[in-house]
Design goal:
The protein is mostly beta strands. 3% of the residues lie in helices and 40% in strands. It starts with 8 loop residues before the first helix and ends with a strand. About 10% of the residues have low confidence.
């Protein structure tokens, strides 16, 4: 989920390229970080954090907080949503699932309202939980419709370096105008979309908006693997040169779940008939080495 404003021409072009019918994974040239390999949780890892969303109402405040930090100024990437805090229409737990729902509505009564025509939700573990290395699995069904941009991603807990130097791991991104294509990407100072050097790849999941899939990250000191349902489609290796510009991933990161409107998701316009659009999350689980 890119933080800096603007869209990558490389990513945009790659998103339009047709997938090879016989291939499970297609890499986006000319910047590739592709993989085609099994993705399994290491046997010596233990569960260290999870949310099963088994308590209806608001998300557990001991595990999640709302990010509303740029509602007044406007969100990066030319996104068009207002992120509501503690508002059940946009973020709630029901029937054993977290629901993040984007809606076509103006919340003009809010003190930090920035003129947005859409309201949605963004929750983070920042300040509550973060992890250095581990296996992350989020079981989710994605929001659909032209204009939507659901994401499962991570940022450095210590953000003093700023973006992109702090490092970003995108476990899942989906844009509604290209339904069924799931992206995994990393951004660093040396590799990011503002200079067309981001490292990423994608896979096809035609039923991503109708069925639950397991979106997975396996991250250690040597490499990052991003995949779905036990199969990695994106790999980013540590060059072990000790340069944080290329590998800033030696410090804890926190988890982010959100449904944006516009930005990359609005590259082909916005279909207001698609709203409300929801991402449902069955669980979030994090394992680390014993």
């Amino acid at each position: 989920m890119r933080i800096a404003r603007g869209l990558s021409a490389v990513a945009a072009l790659a998103a339009l390229l047709p997938a090879a019918a016989a291939a499970q994974t297609v890499h986006n040239p000319p910047i590739t970080a592709g993989a085609d390999e099994p993705l399994t949780r290491p046997s010596d890892y233990r569960l260290v954090w999870s949310d099963e969303f088994d308590r209806p109402g608001a998300p557990d405040s001991k595990k999640w907080r709302y990010d509303t930090s740029r509602n007044k100024e406007g969100w990066y990437n030319n996104e068009l949503q207002y992120y509501a805090a503690d508002r059940r229409e946009n973020v709630r737990v029901e029937n054993g699932r977290l629901v993040i729902e984007a809606r076509k509505e103006r919340l003009a009564d809010k003190p930090d309202f920035g003129g947005q025509d859409y309201a949605s939700g963004k929750i983070v573990t920042q300040g509550l939980a973060s992890w250095k290395y581990g296996f992350v699995e989020v079981r989710a069904k994605l929001a659909c419709g032209r204009g939507t941009w659901p994401a499962i991603w991570m940022l450095a807990e210590d953000g003093k370096a700023g973006w992109p130097a702090m490092g970003e791991i995108d476990i899942m991104e989906h844009v509604g105008w290209n339904q069924g294509r799931v992206y995994g990407t990393v951004h660093t100072k040396a590799y990011n979309h503002t200079i067309n050097t981001q490292k990423g790849s994608y896979t096809q999941a035609p039923d991503a908006c109708d069925a639950f899939h397991n979106y997975q990250l396996d991250w250690n000191e040597d490499r990052i693997l991003v995949g779905m349902d036990g199969h990695a489609f994106m790999r980013f290796d540590n060059d072990h040169k000790g340069d944080p510009a290329s590998w800033p991933f030696a410090s804890p990161q926190y988890l982010i779940l959100n449904v944006a409107v516009g930005g990359w998701g609005g590259q082909m316009g916005i279909d207001d008939a698609a709203f409300p659009a929801r991402m449902e999350v069955d669980y979030v689980r994090v394992w680390q080495k014993r």
